[in-house]
Write a structure and sequence with these properties.
The protein is α/β, with parallel strands linked by helices. It folds into two domains: about 260 residues, 3-Layer(aba) Sandwich (Rossmann fold), CATH 3.40.50; about 90 residues, no CATH class. The chain has 14 helices and 16 strands. The strands form four sheets. The chain has an eight-stranded mixed sheet, with helices on both faces. A hairpin with a 2-residue loop joins strand 5 and strand 6. Helix 1 crosses helix 3, helix 9 packs parallel to helix 11 and helix 13 crosses helix 14. It is globular and about 65 Å long. The termini are far apart. Bound molecules: iron/sulfur cluster. The site of iron/sulfur cluster has 13 residues, from helix 13.
């Protein structure tokens, strides 16, 4: 398969669709050429949080089943699945809820919870990045991201999905480093060999899902930069507005030039055809209320849907304070803050991170108490 190829398939039998894609791209030859038949193959889904795949945040297990069956049929048996959920949730909960225990038991493929893994510091450019040891041992990496929106980086797909290969403290540190450059550096250390993108029903607004948009599409590619640039085009986002993509291109991880992409549709159905995603707008409409400095994905990812609920109840317009969130507010004072990083603020929603429900309830109480006084 050429580096500039992107294969797409539409339908509802996700396991069969995945196997067809792998066959079409001659994945067996790709793997054999890189690491023979006995190399360690890692399959990396997105299990950001315990959220069912149909809610638009996590990788459908049927895709992973298709990958495993294809690999076994082609005599590859040294396989693992590996993932570490975002800060604030347990991978083990997502593993149970999203059907990965069944996958692991039915196919005899171990699932490595990277929240419990050891890690090693890797030097890259002028930075040091801590990466889980299991990820560093892989001979071939199959990345299986969900194409979806992200409150901070706007889009998340192949490049950002590798953040799940970090220990939790490093995920937090990435946010304090501004996210984009460390993501690009991480992708220059860990090379993804094959990408199967779950574009079945990703949420175009929130990384944590909740508002899925059904597309029933799976995509296959080998260049993560091209994959993410193409994901941007599908979501009406300018690639230049997602700096980790252009930074990754500058570091030699791949090409962001989608004009040179060779996009082939393997199969459409009468119901499911190639088309763009709707414009993501819900984050933009509430994020004006927020002053964010280096917040973790989970913290910000819980705040935005909480604000969306308040907006739908007509309460958000009654709030005349900016809401502060993020590690940049540690040790500082202010009026209204989210998470333990803003514990010095007059009114603070405690937690690290606080849940969506906690934020919603406490902000609602704040708004109502202040409108009472008005
Ligand atoms: S409170 Fe601070 S450290 Fe904790 S999740 Fe939120 S931003 Fe991150």
């Amino acid at each position: 398969m050429d580096k500039n190829s992107i294969l797409k398939i539409y339908g509802t039998d996700f396991k069969e669709m995945t196997m067809l894609l792998l066959k079409e791209m001659h994945a067996d030859a790709l793997i054999r050429n890189k690491c023979g038949r006995s190399g360690l193959i890692g399959i990396k889904p997105n299990l950001v949080s315990p959220s069912l795949p149909e809610m638009g945040a996590t990788t459908h297990p049927e895709i992973i089943a298709g990958i495993i069956e294809y690999l076994k049929e082609n005599s590859f048996s040294n396989l693992i699945m590996l993932e570490g959920s975002w800060v604030g949730d347990k991978t083990s909960d997502a593993y149970e809820l999203c059907g990965y225990r069944e996958l692991s038991e039915n196919y005899g493929v171990p699932f490595i919870d990277l929240q419990n893994d050891s890690y090693t510091k890797i030097h890259c450019k002028d930075e040091e990045i801590n990466i889980c040891d299991t990820a560093l041992k892989l001979d071939f990496l199959i990345n299986v991201p969900v194409l979806k929106g992200h409150c901070q980086t706007r889009v998340t797909c192949a490049l950002k999905n590798l953040k799940g290969l970090l220990p939790s403290f490093e995920k937090r540190r990435f946010h304090s480093m501004g996210l984009h450059r460390p993501i690009a550096l991480l992708n220059s250390i860990i090379r993804q060999d094959l990408i199967i993108t779950d574009n079945i029903c990703g949420d175009p607004d929130f990384e944590d899902g909740g508002n899925p948009v059904i597309r029933n599409c799976i995509m296959a590619s080998t260049d993560p930069v091209l994959t993410d640039a193409y994901a941007c085009s599908l979501m009406h986002i300018d690639t230049a507005d997602v700096p980790y993509i252009t930074m990754s291109e500058a570091l030699g991880t791949g090409s962001a030039d989608i004009l040179k992409a060779d996009i082939k549709i393997l199969r459409e159905t009468s119901e499911w055809k190639d088309c763009e995603l709707p414009y993501p707008d819900r984050v933009v409409s509430v994020s004006d209320m927020v002053e964010e400095v280096d917040s973790c994905s989970a913290c910000y990812g819980y705040l935005i849907p909480a604000l969306d609920m308040l907006k739908n109840e007509g309460l958000l317009s009654q709030l005349d304070e900016k809401i502060c969130i993020g590690q940049g507010y540690r040790g500082k004072t202010g009026r209204l803050g989210i998470g333990n990083c803003t514990c010095g603020f007059d009114y603070n929603v405690k937690g690290c991170p606080p849940t969506e429900q906690e934020i919603y309830e406490q902000l609602k109480a704040f708004i109502l108490s202040h409108s009472d006084k008005a």
